[in-house]
Amino acid sequence: MVFFDKLMKAFSGGGPRMFPLAVKCKRCGEILTAQVNLANDLSIEYDDSGNPEFYTCRKVLMGSGRCFQRVEVVLTFDTNRVLQEKTVHGGSFVEE
């Protein structure tokens, strides 16, 4: 298996780039974490002429059992997959 892992990394450019998320639930205060895979989780948005304009990602997070409040995170990235805007509903971002 190690051989195939090395082979996949050689052809995929070293593995996926991940964007970490950390939000605090406004109801219970629990810190919720997730990651966005910049190669697979983004949805592309096109302009009127059919050119790529930006990427979006929507994640809905829920705690581990104390509270069932959903926290929705919406991220907007430019065409180079650099974060441009982030919003959260039901919580707040935790800066590391």
Key phrases:
flat; 96 residues; three-stranded antiparallel β-sheet; four-stranded antiparallel β-sheet; 1 helix; mainly beta; single chain
Number of helical elements? 1
* Strand order in the sheet with the most strands: 3-4-5-6
Number of strands: 7
Strand content: over 45%
Secondary-structure-derived class:
mainly beta
Describe the structure.
With 96 residues, the protein is mainly beta. The chain contains one helix and seven strands, in the order αβββββββ. It has a four-stranded antiparallel β-sheet with strand order 3-4-5-6, with no helix packed on it. A three-stranded antiparallel β-sheet has the order 2-1-7, with no helix packed on it. The model has no long low-confidence stretch (mean pLDDT 88).
Give the helices and strands, then pairings.
Layout: H1 2-12, E1 18-25, E2 31-37, E3 43-46, E4 52-62, E5 70-77, E6 83-89, E7 91-93
Antiparallel strand pairs: 1-2, 1-7, 3-4, 4-5, 5-6
How would you summarize what this structure contains?
The chain is mainly beta and 96 residues long.
